[in-house]
Amino acid sequence: MYLFRLLISFFICFFLWIIFAYSQIGNLTQSSKWVYEAYELKETFAQTIKENKVVIVSGSNSLFGFNSIALESYWKRPVVNDAVNVDLGLAYILHKSKKILARGDIAILPIEYALYREDGKPREAYSDYVLSRDSDYFRELALFEQLTIISRISINRLFNGMKFFFNKKLWLVTGLYGAQNMNSHGDQINTEPSKMTKEQVLIISRLSETIIDNSELSDYFMNTMNEYIAWAKASGICIVVMPPTYTMFSSYKEEKYTHFFVNIKDYYASKSVKFLGTPLVYMYEKKYYFNSADHLNSVGVKKRTLQVMNDIGSDIGLHC
């Protein structure tokens, strides 16, 4: 009898949690504001472009990784840096790119290595964002996916959503992340080494290699990317894949990692998608990074942008 009551209590609490969580749909949060404003800046810029363009699609290794104005001048094509936050997950990052890509455009995908191993479980940043800022997208998801997102919401996130429901107030976004630190093309700015705080210098000095458990690409990645490649081909959009940037460590030359890189290249080759550049070449010394293992400082951005120019060439359309 005790176990039965306990089970009933659990289901009642779970049901009430679901109802409360669903009531948060559309309630804005401060935590999602910087991502929203970043996408607004990038999408607004993209909408002003009337010719074929290049769109950079990934997480923040590209937000902190390109001089799009220099690339635009080199390729003689408008360039939009649509990269924001890897924690939004592969499916949503690709979904957002579809809003600004049009027939004849070129999408460059220097997606993070973590996304090649992604299992599809939503991170809280993604759950927070779609509940708060993209309720239409959330409602179009299958019920199981909605419940999975709800399950990733913290009590603090629910409290913040309810707080907005009552006072309708959000604060101005300040700090490193947000549109206030992006140029018109969507690149992160103010990342000169001289502007690094003591904490950021310490973070970079303490970076260590990231260990992968195996060299295989996840089924979730392949299923998600298969759909995106099929969509791009049907929509007349060219995809060019490149390595992301990452801090270099000697262990990345070991067989486990080199096999991982080969698997990535083989996957795209099987889909007739160009993969340009060598992964290890885009891994730099710590001195080129700003505040994480894949966020370049301004010197690193220049180095990577020149490397991309070298690997792609002056006529990016030749790869389509």
Write structural notes for this entry.
With 320 residues, the protein is an alpha/beta fold. It has a single domain, classed as Rossmann fold, CATH 3.40.50.1110. Helices cover 48% and strands 8% of the residues. The strands form 3 sheets. Strands 2-1-3-4-6 form a 5-stranded parallel β-sheet. The protein has a two-stranded parallel ribbon with strand order 5-7. A hairpin with a 2-residue loop joins strand 8 and strand 9. The chain is globular, with a radius of gyration of 21 Å. The model has no long low-confidence stretch (mean pLDDT 91).
Helix-strand pattern = HHEHHEHEHHHHHHHEEHEEEEH
Computed structural class: alpha/beta
Quick one: overall form? globular
Under CATH, the topology is which? Rossmann fold
What is the distance, rounded to the nearest whole angstrom, between the alpha carbons of the first and last residues? 67 Å
The residue-averaged pLDDT reads 91
In total, the number of domains comes to: 1
Task: Just give the CATH class.
Answer: Alpha Beta
Name given to the CATH homologous superfamily: SGNH hydrolase
Neighbour order of strands in the largest sheet: 2-1-3-4-6
Question: In what range is the share of β-strand residues?
Answer: 5-15%
Weakly predicted, low-confidence segments: none
